Recover the amino acids of this structure.
């Protein structure tokens, strides 16, 4: 095992950059955000819109089964509000379809 | 305080299972790319971001394109800026030192579960920290097992484990749905994400769609109109 200076440099760069991103949003928001107004509203909506932005294209790419699993998750969340049950059902539907229907 | 650490840890265990499985896949990929164990360990500790690590390992070669890979990985991690900004209610009573200490443990998973928990109870950054440590532990052990044992979960997608991330993030998003007023911002987010993802390479669609949706929500809100900007 030899020491690769480029690899260490790369990891240091990405590590530092990622850590800066992880800290800077918090530091900046506490500086600029008052308790009301549109910036606060914008931040309040970020969690939901980030999560949606993460998943929607992946669901579409999954095709019909992705849509079916998503509808089941919507119904499950509406009826039970259980994230865990939704997780299990979603994975089960996709796993079953991949093993038995394709 | 100890209890919050434990609560955060336990709340992240279900998705930790998938994190573990995908960690093992990354470990296997590392052996195929001749990445040394110390390099994997350094990455796990200092980068600690699953999707960025997958891209780094994917682009890894003997003549390492340091700048190119770093830019690609950081572009994927841009969303952490927004994730971090949205965590400000959790850190509202925290010192700067605590912010520097705990934010490294904000992952997609630990963040999402923290934001959901925040709606029903008051929590401190210790909950986020406990969740982050859970993800850190499952990710780390997963990568090490994959690196040393090779393929023991050869194809996690066969068991739907890739969909576990989608399912939990989608369910967590739904748990944040506040009513009809959210419909338009949600549709805007979804449409922008789909269109942007289709026409542009990479993961920039996450940040673009999230900003579009949140901007739309802030503009439409009556509260905002009454309080001014």
């Amino acid at each position: 095992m030899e020491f690769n200076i480029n690899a260490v440099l790369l990891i240091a760069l990405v590590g530092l950059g990622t850590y800066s991103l992880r800290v800077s949003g918090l530091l900046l928001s506490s500086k600029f955000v008052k308790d009301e107004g549109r910036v606060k509203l914008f931040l309040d909506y970020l969690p939901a819109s980030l999560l949606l932005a993460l998943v929607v294209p992946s669901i579409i790419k999954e095709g019909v089964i992705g849509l079916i699993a998503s509808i089941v998750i919507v119904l499950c969340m509406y009826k039970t509000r259980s994230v865990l049950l939704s997780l299990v059902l979603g994975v089960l539907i996709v796993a079953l379809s991949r093993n038995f229907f394709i | 305080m100890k209890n919050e650490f434990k609560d955060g840890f336990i709340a992240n265990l279900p998705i930790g299972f998938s994190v573990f499985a995908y960690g093992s896949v990354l470990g296997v990929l590392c052996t195929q790319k001749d990445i040394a164990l110390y390099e994997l360990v350094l990455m796990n500790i200092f980068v600690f971001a699953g999707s960025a690590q997958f891209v780094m390992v994917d682009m890894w070669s003997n003549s390492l394109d340091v700048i190119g890979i770093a830019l690609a990985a950081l572009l994927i991690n841009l969303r952490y800026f927004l994730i971090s900004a949205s965590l400000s209610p959790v850190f509202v009573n925290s010192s700067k030192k605590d912010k520097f200490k705990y934010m490294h443990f904000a992952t997609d998973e630990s963040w999402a579960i923290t934001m959901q928990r925040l709606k029903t109870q008051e929590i401190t950054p210790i909950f986020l920290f406990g969740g982050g440590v859970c993800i850190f532990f499952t990710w780390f052990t997963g990568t090490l097992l994959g690196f040393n044992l090779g393929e023991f979960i050869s194809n996690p997608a066969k068991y739907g484990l890739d969909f576990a991330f989608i399912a939990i993030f989608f369910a967590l998003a739904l748990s944040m749905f506040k009513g009809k007023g959210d419909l338009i911002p949600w549709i805007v987010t979804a449409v922008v994400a789909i269109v942007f993802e289709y026409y542009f390479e990479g993961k920039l669609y996450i940040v673009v769609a999230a900003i579009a949706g949140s901007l739309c929500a802030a503009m439409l809100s009556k509260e905002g109109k009454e309080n001014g900007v």
